[in-house]
Amino acid sequence: MYLITKSRGLRLAAHESLAAIFALSVAETFYRFHSFTLECLAFLATWYGVSWALNNARKFGHQEDASQHVRLLRHHEQVGPAEVRPSEIGGLRRG
After folding, report:
1. Cβ(47)–Cβ(23) below 8 Å
2. Which CA distances in Å does 92 have to 23, 26, 79, 81, 87?
3. pTM score, two decimals?
4. Domains: count for the chain
5. Ramachandran category for residue 85: left, alpha or beta (phi over 0 → left; psi -120 to 50 → alpha)
6. CA distance 31 to 45
7. Mean pLDDT confidence for 19-38
8. What SS3 state is found at 8?
9. What is the residue range of 47's domain?
10. How many CA atoms lie within 13 A of 80 on its CB side?
11. CA 38 – CA 44 distance, rounded (Å)
12. How confident is the model at residue 8 (pLDDT cuts 50, 70, 90)?
């Protein structure tokens, strides 16, 4: 845990804080296994699941922006070769 925190810094803590708080509230409210180990494992599994769901939601939100960018690049690639003059095709310049 120390190495993860040291390598990623506070950025990781800020990124995971929402998922951790939600998982902790779910664990405190619903998990009553009368065993610390089972409750801890259930809390970690909940945290993992919530973090996974939030990560996928963030990626889905950024995917729309990326797909527009990719469409622009593809449009640029389609327009680019059509603008080349036939005399420059094949590396030979005539005239």
Report:
1. yes
2. 66, 70, 21, 16, 7
3. 0.60
4. 1
5. beta
6. 12
7. 95
8. helix
9. 2-82
10. 6
11. 10
12. confident
Q: Is 95 helix (H, G, I), strand (E, B) or coil?
A: coil
Confidence at residue 31, expressed as pLDDT on a 0 to 100 scale = 94
The answer as to whether 88 is a domain residue is no
Query: How many Cβ atoms sit within 10 Å of the Cβ of residue 51?
Result: 17
Task: Report the pLDDT value the prediction gives residue 2, as an integer from 0 to 100.
Answer: 78
Q: Residue 88 corresponds to which tokens in the numbers above?
A: 């420059």
Q: How far apart are CA 36 and CA 38, in angstroms?
A: 6
Cα angle, residue 25 at apex, residues 24 and 27 outer, rounded to 5°: 65
- What tens digit of pLDDT does each residue of 37-81 get? 999 999 999 999 999 999 999 888 776 555 555 555 555 555 555
19 pLDDT higher than 60: yes
Residue 91 lies in a domain: no
90 inside domain: no
Question: Could you give the angle at the alpha carbon of 75 between the alpha carbons of 69 and 77, nearest 5°?
Answer: 105
